[in-house]
Write a structure and sequence with these properties.
The complex is a heterodimer of chains A (about 300) and B (about 475). Chain A has one domain: MetI-like fold. Chain A is built from 14 helices and no strands. Chain A is mainly alpha-helical. Chain A is globular. In chain B, about 55% of the residues are buried. Chain B is globular. Chain B starts with 11 loop residues before the first helix and ends in an 8-residue tail after the last helix. Chain B is an alpha/beta fold and about 475 residues long. In chain B, helix 8 crosses helix 18 and helix 9 packs across helix 18. Classes of the chains: A mainly alpha (about 300), B alpha/beta (about 475). At the A-B interface, helix 12 of A face helix 1, helix 3, helix 10, helix 17 and helix 18 of B.
């Protein structure tokens, strides 16, 4: 037995975990450094300069770019507020809908796998392609939604989804929610299946109804998982520019302008690279704090 | 006990070997995909050649002039996907044929117009641009420090073909540095497109000729016939052009001839007031969600009585909705209280990056070859592109008077014969400097009009807010030495 419990010397180099671990980790680390780390550091540098899009040289201006966007740029303030509204409403919807969807998808019914496939489609489709489809769906002339409503006599004319302030913001939020819900639902499905069956059985024996089980067993036990899903949703919402850029380009006027799109307009289309970088980085400290808080909370619940 | 350590199923080693094999096969698959992708390119070239041949009976022939010095190497060209697809089919063959003649391997990449600014910015910022020659249809003056001076190309072109139009010169030349940061051999006019049947019924059989008539007729059509007008008030190119056209017609401007900010004036406020009335009388909120395709979609659907657009929307309608196309006619710039001028719809700015490895000589020679063949450019764009050197397209007036591409009636485009008299550059009355480019990129002018039209600000407030933003932008670029004025 002694022989059996002694760790065996690996016969091949690739069986050695000291070799395998760095081997597997290296591509991910290189990927993060090259495609996330380097651009991130570069954007910090740019945000502290007067860099323009066509000038290879630039001067260090300290926090002047941040002062400019905060105090001299009214569109930035609008975009900041819109980002907040957009992120909060979209994520409340994401959490509620993903929870409901996850509960449906873990139950047994005929054709479950096909339904799961359909539900995941919005997440797997390229964001620009999916958003262009929505652009056509919400078109002021050719919207099929309008056509159906007209056909059944509920509408006269067109709704003009993207040309009115509240409808445009609602459309942007709805499309983003549609995109993120599948991911959040998959995360929550993992959480649901991890709840021990004996707890469910005990609650059944005690005569707990659906709502009582939901609010006193399922949601408390899944809280850390829900928080992680919300964290993903929050980050994906705040950092995404595709939905707003394709659907409204920030309009009407700047009614749906968010920080990511305004950073693009300011930095790339306008040419003021330093200010664009400052706008893009503005919420980074907030995101880091929120992410740290949520992950700390999740770890405390010892679910992760 | 030895069985405890016997590998069962797939070991990590097996997995790694299998993964390596899969990666190898995938790499082979990529090669195969590349090869497959190359096939359609050849197909396109064949199609283009066929198209060129089919039109050869009347199309201009391509002329060739040997370069001043021997050329070699690669020439990679980046340009937009033209609104008239036949242009791109012709251009790709035209560029490659020139390359074959001069010993340069030419590659042409087309990308969507919305992706061009980011592509150019990325390549120039990298310091190692992928392309030797890049083209865009709006202002590129912000890239001046990173691009080659094209003065020698302009001088050679003017020696050969006469004086360049003032509007294209102002779109590519910085008077403060004396540098042609771009070469602009062509441009596109921006007439009004109106539905004759609708305007006839409203009492304007020849369409509107003034902004007042546009308001009167457009409002009547909307009220009596239920068809709105489509002048964009959104963050996109058509809205930018339309807003400037109205602004100038009322006597306002973003800057004066000396590049001082002049937006906050009674004339501008009056123009904003007018746009508010026009929106309330003749348009719907769809103009706040306008995009580059909206003109085309609305016109083809028969849902718009009047748009400010090039002829591309109508050309699309010729195939998609011929009955609508036959009903569409054109107006020159509408007269306002001050003048009757319109923004160019598109400018063709070509830039050459200033970086190691860029084939500058080949790029410049190609541009001269392109200029030499502006008649083909105009022809294959179905009269969309106009020359900056008017003598290079001697048949233009003939074509406009008798459209070779099926206009009904055939002289429908004749109104464009006078386009050089009523079209001007972005930045008028000054040059298209980087500040003007940023004001354009951030869509400050359409937003100014839209805020007043939506009623979220008074015209005075909207203009004052626009002025505050524009002044800061001008100050920034002036500090970099690229914008004049400020004294």
């Amino acid at each position: 037995m002694t022989t059996a419990t002694t760790p065996r010397q690996p016969r091949y180099l690739l069986d050695n975990e000291r070799v395998l671990a760095p081997l597997f980790m290296t591509p991910a680390v290189l990927y993060i450094i090259a495609l996330v780390g380097f651009p991130f550091v570069l954007s910090i540098v740019l945000s502290l300069t007067d860099a323009t899009v066509g000038n290879p040289t630039y001067d260090f201006v300290g926090l002047e770019t941040f002062r400019r966007i905060l105090f001299d740029d009214p569109v930035f303030r609008t975009a900041l507020w819109n980002t907040f509204v957009f992120a909060v409403i979209a994520n409340v919807l994401v959490v509620v809908l993903a929870k409901a969807l996850a509960m449906v998808l873990v139950s047994d019914f005929r054709g479950k796998w096909f339904v799961r496939f359909l539900v995941l489609l919005p997440w797997t489709a390229p964001v620009s392609l999916a958003t262009i489809t929505w652009l056509w769906t919400l078109d002021s002339i050719f919207s099929p939604i309008d056509w159906v409503l007209r056909s059944v006599g509920l509408l006269d004319g067109n709704i003009i989804w993207l040309g009115k302030q509240n409808l445009a913001m609602s459309s942007v939020i709805a499309v983003h929610t549609w995109r993120i819900v599948p991911l959040a639902a998959v995360i929550m499905m993992a959480g649901l299946t991890s709840i021990p069956q004996e707890i469910r059985d005990a609650s059944e024996v005690d005569g707990a109804g659906f709502w009582r089980k939901l609010f006193q067993i399922t949601i408390p036990l899944m809280a850390p998982i829900i928080a992680v899903a919300a964290l993903f949703g929050l980050i994906l919402t705040i950092t995404d520019m595709s939905v707003v850029f394709v659907l409204t380009r920030g309009g009407p006027t700047h009614g749906t302008q968010v920080l990511s799109t305004w950073a693009f307009f300011k930095g790339i289309e306008g040419g003021s690279l330093g200010q664009g970088a400052a706008i893009a980085l503005f919420l980074f400290p907030v995101l880091v704090a929120v992410a740290a808080l949520i992950l700390r909370m999740a770890r405390r619940r010892e679910v992760l | 006990m030895a069985q405890l350590y016997r590998p069962r199923g797939v070991t990590r080693r097996d997995f790694l070997i299998a993964s390596a094999a899969a990666a190898f096969l995938a790499a082979c698959g990529d090669d195969a995909a590349t090869t497959t992708t190359a096939a359609p390119a050849g197909t396109t070239a064949t199609t283009a050649a066929t198209t060129t041949t089919a039109a050869a009976a009347v199309a201009p022939t391509t002329s060739f002039r040997a370069p001043a010095a021997p050329l070699s190497g690669d020439l990679k060209i980046l340009l937009w996907s033209h609104f008239v697809p036949s242009h791109d089919e012709w251009f790709d063959v035209f560029a490659k044929e020139w390359g074959d003649q001069v010993g340069v391997n030419v590659t042409v990449d087309h990308i969507g117009v919305g992706d061009v600014p980011a592509a150019i910015a990325g390549e120039l910022q990298s310091g190692r641009p992928e392309h030797d020659l890049m083209q865009y249809i709006a202002v590129l003056s912000q890239h001046e420090p990173s691009v080659v001076d094209m003065t020698d190309v302009v001088q050679e072109a003017e020696n050969r073909y006469g004086t360049m139009l003032d509007l294209t010169r102002k779109s590519s030349f910085n008077p403060n540095t004396g540098k042609f940061y771009a070469y602009a051999p062509a441009w596109v006019p921006d007439p009004g497109d109106y539905r004759k049947s609708l305007w006839e019924a409203a009492g304007f059989p020849d369409g509107p000729s003034t902004w007042d008539e546009l308001l009167e007729g457009g409002s009547r059509i909307f009220a009596e016939q239920g068809v709105q007008m489509g002048i964009g008030l959104s963050q996109e190119i058509d809205s930018n052009m339309a807003g400037r056209t109205l602004l100038w017609s009322y006597g306002g401007s973003i800057q004066d001839a000396n590049e001082n900010v002049s937006i906050n004036s009674d004339a501008t406020i009056e123009a904003v007031n007018y746009m508010k009335r026009l929106f309330e009388g003749a348009m719907t909120e769809e103009v706040f969600a306008w995009n580059a395709a909206s003109n085309n979609q609305g016109l083809i659907a028969g849902e718009l009585s009047y748009i400010l657009n090039s002829i591309s929307a109508w050309r699309t309608a010729q195939e998609a909705a011929p009955e609508v196309a036959d009903d569409v006619f054109f107006t020159p710039a509408l007269a306002g209280p001050a003048t009757a001028i319109a923004a160019q719809h598109v400018m063709y700015n070509w830039i050459v990056p200033e970086a190691d490895g860029v084939n500058v000589d080949a790029a410049k020679e190609f541009l001269l070859h392109y200029t030499d063949n502006l008649a083909s450019v105009t022809w294959h764009s179905k009269l969309y592109d106009f020359p900056a050197f008017t003598d290079r397209v001697p048949d233009l007036d003939t074509w406009l008077g008798n459209d070779p591409f099926g206009a009904s009636p055939a002289d429908k485009l004749k109104v464009l014969s006078t386009a050089t008299e009523w079209a001007t550059n972005i930045g008028h009355p000054g040059p298209a400097n980087p500040a003007i480019g940023q004001v354009f990129g951030e869509a400050i002018i359409p937003v100014m009009f839209a805020e007043a039209a939506r009623g979220t600000k008074t015209p005075q407030e909207a203009v004052a807010d626009a002025e505050a933003q524009i002044k800061l932008i001008f100050d920034d670029w002036r500090a970099q030495g690229l914008v004049g004025g400020g004294a």
